[in-house]
Amino acid sequence: MPKIKENLRQKIVFGIPKGSLQGNSLLFLRQAGFNIYVVPRVCQPKIDDSQINCFLLRAQEIPKYVSLGKLDAGIAATDWILEQKAKVIEVCDLDFAKKTVGRGPKWVLAVPQTSPIKSVKDLQGKVVASEIVNVTNAYLQRKGVKAKVEFSWGASEAKAPLFADAVVDITETGESLRANNLRILDTVLEVKTKLIASPLAWQNLWKREKIETMAMLIYGRVRGHQMSNIMAHTTSANLPKILAVAKKYDQASVKKIAGTDYYDISFRCQALQARDLLPALKMAGAHGIVQSPAFRLG
Amino acid sequence: MPKIKENLRQKIVFGIPKGSLQGNSLLFLRQAGFNIYVVPRVCQPKIDDSQINCFLLRAQEIPKYVSLGKLDAGIAATDWILEQKAKVIEVCDLDFAKKTVGRGPKWVLAVPQTSPIKSVKDLQGKVVASEIVNVTNAYLQRKGVKAKVEFSWGASEAKAPLFADAVVDITETGESLRANNLRILDTVLEVKTKLIASPLAWQNLWKREKIETMAMLIYGRVRGHQMSNIMAHTTSANLPKILAVAKKYDQASVKKIAGTDYYDISFRCQALQARDLLPALKMAGAHGIVQSPAFRLG
């Protein structure tokens, strides 16, 4: 069976971003079922899947290496995919960022609180410091503004007003901007974390299937992370009111408990919705309410 | 007195490198007598000298801003001064790096342990990944080797052999290179930390004097950090032998202790030399030996 032998030798070369996305990337890979660990200082994490070779690389570089086929797949965010103009297959959203799951960071245009600049239109002829020069230039062009975009190596929040009139900086919680007395003028780009694949790897059926399997396992866990299962009991009298509440979230499954007037209902909701949902169920007459975390959605 | 009024309004805009040099930069500024502290996330550290405005900026950017006069002065390392081809005044060496004082890190050319590449000459036509592209190109040119230097955003130790044939990476202790099974072929650049000043600021006498004062205070402390004072007692019989030992380190000061046959000798040595010096003094007949740290040299 030559096909199997060949497959045994095949490997996915997979890029994991070093730095801000590293923690959640490793966490969700682990929770997706891959036993992966990083020896301090070593850039090739160990993983208990002989078909995967992992590399820790700077987030800026993964899209380029994936587009060139030097990596078969990897985890990357849309900012650097766009900035590098990398031609990659976006296999699925991963929905996690450095600190949060479910909402991404964004690149914003900001000026000092005391700046006379009130909107992007006031930047005509001014200097904007940005780590993502191509994305910033495209944004300014869309707005019909001609400004000089200076490449920033980082620490951009220090730059206005002394080194630039405005900055384009990434923010997840807004804390750094507030701490440095910066005022947000506009959102330049909302960032999504993606599992991306190389167009070359995508043409290789074995690799494509392996990447899709990885994506399914990781994405299922990320979605599971955000979901809760809700179970509750009710009498037949209250059932319509309770179903009316549940309907806003999901199609509930209803089972009559044998030999009683009780019904068992179960459905799913976003974990974040539970704090509104649970009191509403209670008000509608539900009892024995149980919220349990979903682990993975398939 | 218009001159004084004017001076009161003058300020030095001073760049402190964020990242690997940040810790020692703040430490030596503090020990030089400046009460400086960083509010978390805030890029403008507070300093108890109203004539200094500090900014935390990426190490890569300080030479450029100093050469343009946007910063009057700052702490920078020679790698990024050279890489940015920044025209700056090198006021003094600072002799500290990320982890060590007295010896700097270096950029080295390295390949995987298993690579057939044995010397820089074998890199003809190959790909070298490096964060300091200009410095690396100049090095290869000196060696008469034509290779493609690809810009690396960092994490270069992951790159050979899959993404490049060789890497130019910075190392202070060699740990990362060893952990990633890399073999050093050659030193590309030895790095020194410097206090640098803008040619523009240097023409302003008030600024120049202020920068020179800062340099004297910081450099004095860095040198003091590495020095020890040695004091010892001896009889007149042993004095010649002891002076012969001391002479290797410094010109000793000798005082006769009134009404006795004892002499008190004192001199300075490098703190690192003390472990050889002290036993030698003992062997030569000294007693009451005291080594005390120097704090600052003026």
Automatic annotation (TrEMBL), chains A, B:
UniProt-listed InterPro entries: ATP_PRibTrfase_cat (IPR013820), ATP_PRibTrfase_HisG (IPR001348), N-reg_PII/ATP_PRibTrfase_C (IPR015867)
Single GO BP term: L-histidine biosynthetic process
EC code: 2.4.2.17
Domain of life: Bacteria
Stretches assigned to the ATP phosphoribosyltransferase catalytic domain: 58-218
Gene3D superfamilies: 3.30.70.120, Periplasmic binding protein-like II
Pfam families from the UniProt entry: HisG (PF01634)
Protein's cellular compartments: Cytoplasm
Reaction(s) catalysed by this chain's protein: 1-(5-phospho-beta-D-ribosyl)-ATP + diphosphate = 5-phospho-alpha-D-ribose 1-diphosphate + ATP
Keywords: Amino-acid biosynthesis, ATP-binding, Cytoplasm, Glycosyltransferase, Histidine biosynthesis, Nucleotide-binding, Transferase
Pathways involved: Amino-acid biosynthesis; L-histidine biosynthesis; L-histidine from 5-phospho-alpha-D-ribose 1-diphosphate: step 1/9
Main location: cytoplasm
PANTHER family: ATP PHOSPHORIBOSYLTRANSFERASE (PTHR21403:SF10), ATP PHOSPHORIBOSYLTRANSFERASE ATP-PRTASE (PTHR21403)
NCBIfam families found in the cross-reference section: hisG
Name under which the protein is recorded: ATP phosphoribosyltransferase
Biological source species: bacterium (Candidatus Gribaldobacteria) CG10_big_fil_rev_8_21_14_0_10_41_12
